[in-house]
Design the sequence.
């Protein structure tokens, strides 16, 4: 772009910006997902896990995890010239859930990231978005070396409504995450407006 005009003589495009949440349990890969796809250096609010948090932070299955998000992760990706997504990763532990209401304001939709080794950890996120009428899809993060389950079995275990998309993904892979985000946008665009709760004043 030169002096506010594109090289082909077309006027500059003001992109549509959309807000997407990335939620799920502790250690499920939310920070990794945002970082793998963001075109800017992601903002992270990570702190080291401490002995004081050991009784409340369940690290089973993620024994090598040493940090945790305490506020949010933030990233940005341009899907098309006229479409930009702002990604907000939510903190996973229950003691930080008060942040969710703030982060969800104005969100088009959400990704609920799930780990089949600890599937129950994403129940709270599924329940949160269902109760607030925020369209979401479930991304099953396929960790290396873990058992793979048919999507139908995971859907049944989560007791998902038929209209909620469920996608297998790899939070480390940019293309896999892009497909997930495109799926959220497409799902949100067809979501009935009357199912969304009104925005708080």
Sequence:
């Amino acid at each position: 772009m030169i002096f506010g005009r594109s090289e082909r003589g077309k006027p500059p495009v003001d992109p549509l910006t959309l807000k997407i949440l990335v939620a799920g349990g502790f250690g499920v890969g939310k920070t990794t997902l945002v970082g793998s796809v963001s075109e800017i250096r992601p903002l992270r609010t990570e702190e080291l896990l401490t002995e004081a948090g050991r009784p409340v932070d369940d690290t089973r299955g993620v024994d090598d995890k040493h940090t945790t998000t305490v506020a949010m992760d933030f990233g940005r990706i341009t899907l098309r010239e006229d479409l930009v997504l702002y990604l907000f990763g939510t903190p996973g532990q229950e003691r930080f859930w008060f942040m969710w209401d703030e982060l969800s304001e104005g969100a088009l939709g959400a990704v609920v990231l799930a780990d089949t080794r600890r599937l129950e950890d994403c129940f709270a996120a599924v329940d949160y978005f269902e109760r607030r009428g925020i369209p979401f899809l479930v991304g099953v993060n396929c960790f290396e070396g873990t058992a793979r389950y048919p999507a139908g079995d995971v859907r049944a275990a989560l007791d998902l409504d038929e209209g909620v998309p469920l996608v297998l993904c790899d939070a480390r892979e940019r293309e896999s995450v892009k497909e997930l985000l495109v799926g959220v946008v497409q799902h949100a665009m067809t979501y009935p407006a009357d199912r969304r709760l009104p925005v708080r004043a």
